[in-house]
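Handoff note, outgoing to incoming analyst
You'll be picking up this chain. Sequence as last confirmed:
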Amino acid sequence: MRAALSRLRAELALAAVAFIWGSTFVIVKEALHDVSTFLFLALRFTLASLLLAFWLRRRLAQPAHFGWRGGALCGLLLFLGYALQTAGLRWTTASNSAFITGLYVVMVPLLGSLVYHNRPRPAELGGAALAVCGTALMSGGLPSAWNRGDVLTAACAAAFAGHMLAVERYSRRMDFERLSLMQIAMVAALSWAAAAGEAPRIAWSGRLWFALLATSVLATAVSFVLYTWAQGQTTAARAALIFALEPVFAGLVAWAAAGERWTAASLAGAALILAAIVLVELKPAARGGHPEF
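Most recent structure output, in case you need it:
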């Protein structure tokens, strides 16, 4: 009973993170008119690192196992997800990017079965398939022909899937606050390195300041602490399925804030994503011992 309540709290926290990320999509999209991509990521994750370090300063002062390898791996995979998605957008459409990135939902249980040498649960695979179909409807359908941007975006989805599995593993082996800070700081450092290779541009504006504050505080510092803690209470496959709600929340916020209309396909896609989550929740995943490295 206690384990079920812990899992429920964790999955509600993941839904809250999906809502935050979905809500900030429009904010980030507008801010990128004033700043280059990697410079924005560098500023966002640097601010989040400083805020999180200040917030956790007493906790960090206590002796504990840091798990540098876990923090570095999680940070590297997270950065690769952002970087590959950004690079892919140069050659593919936003709708293709949204759908292909969403493939991480089905990649997580498949990749997890390879890592842990077990079979993915039928309910998780069925839920992932439904969620992918829902994402396809919400993003405009399957790409008609794959180009280099689509391939890069598929690699981005694989990186995000690997990140979720890495967070699931290391959040159970080390302090989740330290793991959150380490991966955010790693993304900040790699983003600064990537920013040096692009043509940096920035025009300070009210919408840029608002986007930096909203994303660094809510969408990064707070969200990654919640996400990393929650991954220690549930499986990566279930977390990936809950994160499929992100485009649903993004659509709701766009409708409420900007008056964007929902189409029949969008409504059907949202319904499939919700049905996928219900399917998996009706048969909760058993907490199993994953093999240690």
